[in-house]
Predict the structure.
Amino acid sequence: MKTLTKTTLFIGTIFLFLLGCNTSENKKNNATTETVFHAKVDSLMGLMTLQEKVGQMVMYSGSGAITGPTVNTNFRTYIKEANVGAMLNVYSAKATRDLQKLAVEETRLGIPLLFGYDVIHGFKTIFPINLGLAASWDLDDIEKGSRIAAEEASAVGIHWTFAPMVDIARDPRWGRISEGMGEDVYLASKITKAYVRGFQGDDLSKTNTILACAKHFVGYGAAQAGRDYHTVNMGEEELRNVYLPPFKAAVDEGVETFMTAFNEINGVPATANKYIFKDILRDEWGFNGFVVTDYTAINELVDHGFAKDEKHATKLAIEAGIDQDMMSSANRLYLEELVNEGEVDVELVNEACRRILLAKFKLGLFDDPYKYCDEQREKETIYKPEFLEAARHSAAISSVLLKNDDKALPLTSEKTIALIGPLAKDKENILGNWGAAGDRRGKAISVHQGIQEYVNDAKINYAKGCEIEGDDESGFNEAIKVAKKSDIVVMVMGEDYDMSGEAASRTNIKIPGSQTKLIKRIREAVPNKKIVLVLMNGRPLDLSEEDTLADAILETWFPGTMGGNGVADVLFGKHNPSGKLTVTFPRNLGQVPIYYNMKNTGRPIPANNPKEDYKSNYLDVPNTPLYPFGHGLSYTTFEYSNFKLSAETTGFSDTLTAMATITNTGDYDGHEVVQLYVHDKVGSITRPVKELKGFEKIFLKKGESKTVSFDLSVEDLKFYNSEMKFTVEPGEFEIAIKGTSDFDFEHAFTLE
Ligand code: BGC
């Protein structure tokens, strides 16, 4: 460690004081522009040694959470040596202040640390998992939820969330499908923007806003066989038309940071991939925030077989445009040496350091490095009643009613309920995989508690029945007994929270353990009673069997801290379900990958004979999924009529309007997600059979009608063509406005 003299410490302090004053003055003059920050960064960098610059490019994990395979307990020493620019997994106003003090008071220049954390679907107040939130199709609600997450996280010293995860995912085996927005490019891009707006707000210098991070760049969701971290091979067409757009949306929304993906893509690991980071992200898209690696991803270049050792890996990563090293220790150990040996251009270090410092200036950390470490604010902010209320609402609107035969739902408070299943009283799994700092057990509301708000205790007959996993059937008899003495059966079942998320891939996507067997036994025991299956899980499951056994199925994902209340609100009809799937539920694993916007093939199945020989089909199951993208029932019914187009032929500079009337024809008021789909019939690159191009969530009182219209311009019809140009091609397009992706087109227009 270099010895610090009192004089150098003094210089640093004076310098930072001046920076702070300048910033305040500029604020007064309303001139806190990026240009001003750049000038400040330049003056600061003028004082920095190479080692101090490299230090900014290093991140270590504290011990507040373990989110990767290695720990390094020397971080306090490294901070004091000016060898650390950021920390993750440290939270609480006290803990972050404590470490910030080391950086500010014990290093020569006193450059404040950045504190990052996985604030993925809430911080303390946990919202439904991201796949569930997406199913609400409610951009305002998603933005509000991430705003609340930022409020809470920023109150405990966090400046930066490693979210949103914007990886398109079409393979339910992959555990991280739970963290994303589903299979659709258009919807995921819109949701990405909502998250970024929510986290970053309109002014990063406010204490309640945090940096967002678009991750994992890129292709992570396409891991072969759904196995986490696995190889990705994809053509340029798929990369550009499917996997890149949500990341581009994040850049367009001003996201400040990016994270690399663990996977290789077309033979080059993402963390050393110049093509995606330099050519696409920086040069093509003009991204000027900073890029952090995923956890130990630089080290992993060696195991990938791309770098001969960690020093080589360090060189490859920085040359690919990666700015900060999360947990590899690679930059700390080798970067300075590589520059001194002439192996790495010092300008690359300067650029990376500049970008990281810029983020710190934007956050106002040079004004006050402790501005996020306020214990009083922490106490006042966490679990505010309005946050909990918002989480309850999100849980309700994220739930998807997959099936509801003979109006099994909603429940009424007069009937006795057999409440069965390993998740009925659960307060731990309900938070989902990224429970962040949420209190598992303590704070969460179980479905049982939620139901207790509606029904008096005497009417609830509870039996656990079985565990989530394992083949124990010893609780079956008790469960059958309570089913027999009740009017209706509600079974709360699904996965354990850590059966999805990172490093949680499954080759079997059925409900685990003996749960389905229990449903079967109950069906046999009470053949004439209604069975309502309430599911908690982090991926599309194969529900083919349950679909034949249960009268109603409500998919609640992992609904979060207030999950029990939100779910009960839906079960009892206080909230009419309005969620729609953003990911396809297959009939079985053999259909995977299956998604609504697939290609037609040269031998599509004829509608009147799907089993025809020499056609693209299966011998054993239909091509169709069990529950399609966009599907989700309501307690009421909606009828679509009067589809109209403003023109049948449209020009390149015109706007085409499509409209339809939606009528609530059932017995309840309710929300409906109205979806616009287009099919570009011929392309220089074949186009998907359907593509979502717009949606609107509307509220209709029973009997009420509304006309919903969508404007389409050529921008909406663009795609990367055979020359990888983002363009639109003339020709015929089919178009429809529907409440699901499961329909046949009846209308078309021509673009001339
Ligand atoms: C995950 C990232 C996460 C990081 C930090 C990694 O293992 O892949 O998504 O942000 O850990 O916790």
User: Anything to note?
Assistant: The longest strand covers residues 670-680. Residues 1-14, 20-27 have pLDDT under 50 and may be disordered. The two ends are 69 Å apart (CA to CA).
